[in-house]
Every structure is written in structure tokens, then in C-alpha cells.
Amino acid sequence: MKTIFDINFKDKKAIIRVDFNVPLDENFKVTDATRVEAAKPTIDKILSDGGSVILMSHLGRPKGVQEEFSLKHIVNKVAEVLNIPIKFASDCIGDVAQNAASNLKSGEVLLLENLRFHPEEEAGDVDFAKQLSQLGDIYVNDAFGTAHRAHASTTIIAKFFPQNKCFGALLAKEIESLNKVLQNSQKPVTAVLGGSKVSSKITVIENILDKVDHMIIGGGMTFTFVKALGGKIGNSISEDDKQDLALEILRLAKEKNVQIHIPIDVVAANAFANDAQTQIVDVNHIPDGWQGLDAGPKSLENFKKVILKSKTILWNGPLGVFEMKNFANGTIQLGNFIAEATENGAFSLVGGGDSVAAVKQFGFEDKMSYVSTGGGAMLEMLEGKTLPGIAAILS
Ligand code: AMP
């Protein structure tokens, strides 16, 4: 795996695909610069070698050129984070971009306008990719969040750099961390899969059954399993057409010697609302009119035992409706258990949109071994797929 650390960038122009798809407020101020900060190590390394940097990214989902999605809004924030002045090109291809790129000197940074102002970006257009490629000497992909897309700047462009392409520090760390879980993992390996639906996680579950010793299934998915096993789930969410699949997963798990842990009790509510009445009930006996919205105390006790004896832990998806304070306990406790296991030497990887949001919200970010930055990309890797953006660098 070739990374920026294998290349000396002296007097070279690196064209880097970053993920600067940051949130902006109504005054177009950046409200969370995490993604810019995440790209800093790669940019710093190239500049300290004596190279120059051309940054390209998308922002939002513009339909053609739309001022509100212009990357000019983030120039000041990027300059602040990198602690260096930033040049800006008002188009990512054409004369504007070419002139700006050819005038770039060692130690300088140029940010290109939103790639998605051109529909050719998402279409993976070869000619558009070629025009981007002509701006730099070396192509670096450091955008994990879009590595599962075969877009011009994430994948197609790589073919114009047969020798001069590599992974940035962030993307390399993402791949390394996932490999630590999926390939070179220390046993016992435990996956915690929560969230709302079996249907959105099914391919992940099937793929990782071959790689884990324990699987904790929580969140809304619980009830499809419980119902399939003949339990009474009241008004809890369930996907009735996925019951056979749930039973098949349990059968496969047995065959592969994977221990599945499902909540045995839940916090049930008489409405999907934070101020609903609640009671702790057995997961198989949820009264009509009540729905399970969080894992109960006995379940958490079981999960704790499993987590604390694990050496590798993967966490994707919350254990309950953590957005509501009264149903956040299971997710917070789970975070505590994983933090404790990590402190005792386990490797923990958290990923997938909602679990990352939960980890940030409850302050667990620094207590996990690695928090992935790419929701969809991580899920696809867990599903066993080869991501086009990664394959393009490896080929
Ligand atoms: P996902 O995007 O599939 O990871 O699902 C995340 C969502 O699942 C979060 O918004 C949670 O509120 C929701 N969720 C977790 N547990 C439950 C539950 N028991 N009932 C309904 N929704 C849930």
C-alpha cells in the first residue's frame, strides 16, 4: 500500500482529493472543521517535503453552479486550520484552474472550486478527470467518505498517474484500522450492530459472521429477531418480511460458531417520545401499545461481560433511540464498556454515521482506538466490497 510517507514531494505538485464537505451555517461559516483538520497531516507532510498542494473536494449536492455550495466559503477556515494562506481557483478545471496550478510555488496551497459544479464529476467522466489530472504531478486520495464512489476525482483520475499515486495519511489509517478488525484481528472479536433496520445491515452481518466470535445485535433490529423467534414485541419496530432472514442469520451464526447476543430486556415506552411513560420489560413480552426504545439493565450487564473480554471491537449503530435523552442510556453504557475495554488494551473501531454522532455527542471520541470518518464507505468495506477509490490506487 503506497502512502504519502513513501514519496518525497520536493518540487512536486500534489493534487489531493480531500473530503471538505463540511457543514455551513446560514452565514456560510463552517460549523465543524473536523474534516479539514483530518486532512492536515497529509498536507503538512507534503509542504514540509518542499512540495505544493492542490486541494479538490465536493461540498453538498449542488445542481450545477450554485453560489451557496461554493468552496470559497471555507477558504478562511482552511487557512486557519493549516495556518498558511490559501489560494482559491473559482473553477476546478479550465484556464482559471490551470493558471492557478502552474503559478503555484513550493510551500503553497491552492483550493479548487466545488468539483460537483460539473456533473462530469459524479458521472466519472474520463475527460474531466484528465483535465483535473493535468493540474498536478502526483495524485493523492485522502477522502475516505467518497472512496466508495467511482467519481472522476476519487477513482477515474488515478489512471492518469500510473506510477505517481498514493493514499493520504487519513485514508491509509482508515484502511489500516478496518483491516485490524477484518483481517489481522486479535481474538475474541466482537461486533456490535445497532441502528434501526435489519435490511440496511444485512450484508454487513452476513460478511462479518466469518470474522467475529461474538455479535451483539441491538437497537431497532432486535425486534425482527425477537418476533421471528416467537416473542411478543408490542408496537416495537420490526420488518416482518425479514423474519426468515433473521432466522437464517441465527442458523448461520450457530454453524460458524459465532455467539449472538440479543437484548433480553428493554426500556419500553407507550409512545415514540422522550416524555412517554416507560417500563423495563422482558424483550419477549412487550405489552400491546408499548415499544422497545432502548436496551434494558440485564441486557447491558450481558453486553458488558462480552465487551470486556473482547480484544477487538467493532461498533456500528446505536443500541437505542439515543437522540432522546430517556432512551440514550444503552448507547452511553455501551460506549463506557468499549472505552474500558480499550483502556485495557483492546482495539476498538467505531463507524457508521449514527454511532459516530453518538460517540461525539457523549464524549467518547478520544476513548476509542479509531473513529471512522466515512459512514457509507465503511459500511461497504464491512460488507466485503472493494471500494473503487481504494482499488484505483492499488491497481
Ligand atoms: P441506522 O441509521 O440504521 O444505524 O439507525 C440509527 C437510528 O436507529 C437512530 O436514529 C436510532 O434512533 C434508531 N433506533 C435505535 N434503536 C431503536 C429502536 N429500538 N426503535 C426505533 N429506532 C431505533
Describe the structure.
The protein has 14 helices and 17 strands. It is of the alpha/beta class and 395 residues long. It has 2 domains: 4-172, Phosphoglycerate kinase, N-terminal domain (Rossmann fold), CATH 3.40.50; 185-382, Phosphoglycerate kinase, N-terminal domain (Rossmann fold, 3-Layer(aba) Sandwich). Helix 3 links the parallel strand 3 (86-89) and strand 4 (109-112). Helix 1 packs across helix 2 (75-82), helix 8 (222-228) crosses helix 9 and helix 10 (297-308) runs parallel beside helix 11. The longest helix is centred in the first third of the chain and has 16 residues, at 34-49. The structure holds adenosine monophosphate. Adenosine monophosphate binds at residues 195-197, 200, 219-220, 237, 292-293, 317-318, 320-321, 323, 352, 354.
Average pLDDT works out at: 96
- Cα shape: elongated
Q: What is the rounded Rg?
A: 23 Å
CATH H-tier superfamily of the largest domain? Phosphoglycerate kinase, N-terminal domain
Task: Give the helix level as a range of percent.
Answer: 25-40%
CATH topology of the largest domain: Rossmann fold
Termini separation = 10 Å
Biggest sheet: strands side by side, in what order? 3-4-2-1-5-6
